[in-house]
Amino acid sequence: MDLAYIPSPSQSVWHLFGVVPIRGYALAIISGIVIACVITEVRLRRRGAAPGTVIDIALWAVPFGIVGARIYHVITSPDAYFGVDGVPMDAFAIWKGGLGIPGAIVAGALGAWIACRRLGVPLSMVADALAPGLPVAQAVGRLGNWFNQELYGGPLDAWWAVEIDQQNRLAGYMDVATYHPTFLYELLWNLGLALLVWLLDRRLKFGKGRAFALYVLGYGIGRFWIEGMRIDPAQDFLGLRLNQWMSVAIIVGALIYLLRVEGKRDVLVPGADGVLKAVPYDSPEALAGEADVDADETVTEDDDPDEESEDEASRDGETGDAGENEKATEDGKV
């Protein structure tokens, strides 16, 4: 069947055992967080971090990030909660949708900083490890907007337009059925950004938070473009939506960071006191650590040097005994 548009989900909530609500928006957010944690865990281990480090950091960063994202959304869209027809208590109803990524980044970074201080891991290293995983998480999370039929763009008559049910259409658009699927635009943009960050980081070995700054730069550019398509009510200033001004700010900030901050990728190695410390990946300490690991991996039970020495000594003893027996036999014959 040829589709003239992208249909919206027929429902966004399922009830487990008829009682517990399972919301598509929440599933999208949680799935994105899990994927980001897995990607970051792999990248942190390759930098010398202990297994499970990302979980210790996520326990701080995720709650901070969710709260920050919600606060940012409420501040930038106050009419829905404190306007004439607003419902103030809905400011706490996260499951109904409404999370601002800039707020999540700032507050999540604060939570991650607290965790990194407790663990003794550089925040910049964690940020660089997170850089490709975060846009993947955002891409998956954008599916939540699709389930909620929210944050769509202007009217569009094309095969990739998304259909919005009448009860979810904005005032003044009740007779318009299909719109720009801004959730899909941002999903694809973020996946492309994740691939770009991963490829450049693999080639250039960014350090000191520069991979994360590249992600912030790319996200800001994409968000500025996509935000301009949206038609939901928002605060504006000088013809631009508030989120577009925020995008400009983070673009400028990311560019300044990339131009001013230099440094190679760090890895964690044991210090003289046994405590992990961060050193450049190509430093003698880091290379020595890799050599030690390679040496440990090549030594097995079959080629243990101590066992080889014992085997050689045993063979020498057996050879000596055999030689003496042969000599005694010859003497007897004589």
From TrEMBL:
<keyword id="KW-0449">Lipoprotein</keyword>
<keyword id="KW-0812">Transmembrane</keyword>
<dbReference type="InterPro" id="IPR001640">
    <property type="entry name" value="Lgt"/>
</dbReference>
<dbReference type="GO" id="GO:0005886">
    <property type="term" value="C:plasma membrane"/>
</dbReference>
<feature type="transmembrane region" description="Helical">
    <location>
        <begin position="22"/>
        <end position="42"/>
    </location>
</feature>
<feature type="transmembrane region" description="Helical">
    <location>
        <begin position="123"/>
        <end position="141"/>
    </location>
</feature>
<feature type="compositionally biased region" description="Basic and acidic residues">
    <location>
        <begin position="312"/>
        <end position="334"/>
    </location>
</feature>
<dbReference type="Pfam" id="PF01790">
    <property type="entry name" value="LGT"/>
</dbReference>
<feature type="binding site">
    <location>
        <position position="142"/>
    </location>
    <ligand>
        <name>a 1,2-diacyl-sn-glycero-3-phospho-(1'-sn-glycerol)</name>
    </ligand>
</feature>
<feature type="transmembrane region" description="Helical">
    <location>
        <begin position="93"/>
        <end position="116"/>
    </location>
</feature>
<protein>
    <recommendedName>
        <fullName>Phosphatidylglycerol--prolipoprotein diacylglyceryl transferase</fullName>
        <ecNumber>2.5.1.145</ecNumber>
    </recommendedName>
</protein>
<comment type="similarity">
    <text>Belongs to the Lgt family.</text>
</comment>
<keyword id="KW-1003">Cell membrane</keyword>
<keyword id="KW-0808">Transferase</keyword>
<dbReference type="GO" id="GO:0008961">
    <property type="term" value="F:phosphatidylglycerol-prolipoprotein diacylglyceryl transferase activity"/>
</dbReference>
<feature type="compositionally biased region" description="Acidic residues">
    <location>
        <begin position="291"/>
        <end position="311"/>
    </location>
</feature>
<feature type="transmembrane region" description="Helical">
    <location>
        <begin position="54"/>
        <end position="73"/>
    </location>
</feature>
<feature type="transmembrane region" description="Helical">
    <location>
        <begin position="183"/>
        <end position="200"/>
    </location>
</feature>
<keyword id="KW-0472">Membrane</keyword>
<keyword id="KW-1133">Transmembrane helix</keyword>
<feature type="region of interest" description="Disordered">
    <location>
        <begin position="286"/>
        <end position="334"/>
    </location>
</feature>
<comment type="pathway">
    <text>Protein modification; lipoprotein biosynthesis (diacylglyceryl transfer).</text>
</comment>
<feature type="transmembrane region" description="Helical">
    <location>
        <begin position="242"/>
        <end position="259"/>
    </location>
</feature>
<comment type="function">
    <text>Catalyzes the transfer of the diacylglyceryl group from phosphatidylglycerol to the sulfhydryl group of the N-terminal cysteine of a prolipoprotein, the first step in the formation of mature lipoproteins.</text>
</comment>
<dbReference type="GO" id="GO:0042158">
    <property type="term" value="P:lipoprotein biosynthetic process"/>
</dbReference>
<feature type="transmembrane region" description="Helical">
    <location>
        <begin position="212"/>
        <end position="230"/>
    </location>
</feature>
